[in-house]
């Protein structure tokens, strides 16, 4: 069964992963990535442009599908070796969350931001479709990321 996920990271980090075809969560921890399976949908929410900066960015920054393969360790500066998963990212624009607040199951609770602190949470198929349509501008194009059947 295909599942849909929301990951949280700064836009700067998401853009790097998108450019290089991978994702990582929770500062490179392995356990959350093990929950993801090939074909699952993934969308990133970025509360800020840069990690640790409160700038009110609050946007969805990437959407795609988990590729075949297991989590692996990447190599970064100073010996940091975060765990990653490969992702087939879709073309799409960054989408502020504000216009979607009234339509997402995710934001029904008054304190919806609290749930995002986990760094990775399951998302409803409906929310994934709404976010995907807003980011890609194609309601019918969502078959590419597994939300709807191919037309």
Automatic annotation (TrEMBL):
Residues 3-131 form the EVE domain. CDD domains: EVE-like. Pfam families: EVE. Gene3D superfamilies: ph1033 like domains. InterPro entries: EVE_domain, PUA-like_sf, UPF0310. Signal peptide: none annotated. It comes from the Bacteria. HAMAP family: UPF0310 (MF_00771). Belongs to the UPF0310 family. This is UPF0310 protein SAMN02927928_3436. It comes from Asticcacaulis taihuensis.
């Amino acid at each position: 069964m295909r599942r849909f996920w929301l990951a949280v990271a700064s836009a700067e980090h998401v853009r790097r992963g998108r450019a290089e075809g991978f994702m990582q969560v929770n500062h490179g921890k392995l356990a959350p990535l093990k929950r993801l399976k090939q074909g699952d949908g993934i969308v990133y929410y970025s509360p800020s442009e840069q990690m640790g900066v409160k700038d009110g960015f609050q946007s969805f920054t990437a959407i795609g599908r988990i590729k075949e393969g297991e989590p692996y360790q990447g190599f970064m500066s100073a010996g940091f070796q975060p765990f990653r998963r490969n992702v087939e990212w879709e073309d799409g624009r960054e989408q502020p969350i504000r216009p979607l607040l009234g339509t997402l199951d995710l934001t029904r609770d008054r304190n919806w931001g609290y749930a995002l602190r986990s760094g990775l949470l399951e998302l409803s198929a409906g929310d994934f479709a709404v976010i995907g349509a807003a980011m890609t501008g194609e309601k019918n194009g969502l078959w590419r990321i597994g939300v709807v059947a191919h037309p």
